[in-house]
Fold Lipoprotein.
Amino acid sequence: MARASGLLLALATLACSSPAEKKTQAAEASVRRFFAALPDGDCAVLGPLLATGGSAQPCADTVRELNAHGFELVEVVGAEVDGRSADAVLVRAKVARDGAVREEPFILRVELQDGGWKLRL
């Protein structure tokens, strides 16, 4: 019963969220999924989480470079819709590189592409 109540509360919270909150929550979740899957280096999983076009590198190159430098997500600090595009969210995240946590958060751009939120690196 408690589990069902928790699910209903989560659904109610999402239903009451503003469009901007829904975007930022979805973008934050994409960042978390990407970094959780990064150590495995599987582009079948990571590729759909990466934005394409523009200056985007192939998944294998991006993943190889990030893993070579030991990038890890420490925490998502916050997010806001990018003022330049309603289909982009800027996610501030604390990351570690080779075990050292950067003092200043990274700003990660997450874009809505093909119906999903994708990280542009």
Summary: Residues 4-11 have pLDDT under 50 and may be disordered. The longest strand covers residues 72-81.
